[in-house]
Amino acid sequence: MAKSVANGYADALAEVGRSQNNLESIAADVDKLGHFCEDEQFYKFFVSPVVKDEHKKEVVKSLGKEANFTNATVNLLNLLITKKRTMILKDLIKEFEEIYNKLTDTEIAFVTSAVEIDKSQLSLISQKLQSMSGSKNVKLKNIIDKSVIAGFIVRFGEDGSRLIDMSVKGQLDKIASQIELADKAAAF
After folding, report:
1. Residue 27: closest CA among 108, 132, 124, 134
2. 129 contacts 157 by C-beta, under 8 angstroms
3. Are residues 183 and 143 in the same domain?
4. pLDDT in tens, 51-110
5. How far apart are the first and last CA of the chain?
6. 51 and 66 fall within a common domain
7. Complete DSSP assignment for 62-129
8. Are 155 and 112 in contact (CB under 8 A)?
9. Which residues contact 118 (CB under 8 A, 6 or more apart)?
10. Looking at the whole model, is its pTM more than 0.70?
11. Please, are residues 26 and 17 in contact by the beta-carbon 8 Å criterion?
12. Which of residues 102, 126, 145 is at a domain's end?
C-alpha cells in the first residue's frame, strides 16, 4: 500500500518537474533527500509522529534553503508532513528514481570494488556500459567491498541480471572451480 501511495506522489513530482521544465533539478533534490534519509537521526525525526508538524516544516524550510531545493520539492515535503505521510519518504525516493530513469532512458549500474574508483575510471566504465546497454545515460553507484581484492564487478540490466566480473576474487573463484573440476575428473 505504502509503495503505491509513494508511487503516486513520485509520479506527481515527476510530472511537476516535466511541466515546469526542471526535472533535472528535482532529481538532484531527490538524490540529496536520499542522502539525508541515510542519516538515521534525520529520518527518525522526519517520520516521528511525536514531533510537531510545525517543527518539521521549519526544518524542511531551512533544509530547503541550505540544500537549494526547488519549490516543488519543498512543497512535496510539506505536503507529506500535512497529510501524515512522512513514513513513505524512502519509498517515494525509490519510486521517483525509477520514474526519472525511465523518462530519461537512464541505466543504473552498481560497480563493486575493494576501493573507491576515481571519476575518470568511472567515466570509462559508464561509456562502455552506455554502448552495451543502448541507454542514453548511465548512472553508476560505487559499492565498496574489500572481498573483491582488486578490480571491479559491474551489475546492470533488469534487476542486476547482467554482470561483468573484472575482479581478482572472480578470477580466483574461477581457478578454484577449475581445480575442483579437475580433482573430480581425476577421481574417476
Report:
1. 108
2. no
3. yes
4. 999 999 999 999 999 999 999 999 999 999 999 999 999 999 999 999 999 999 888 888
5. 57
6. yes
7. HHHHHHT--HHHHHHHHHHHHTT-GGGHHHHHHHHHHHHHHHTTEEEEEEEESSPPPHHHHHHHHHHH
8. yes
9. none
10. yes
11. yes
12. 102
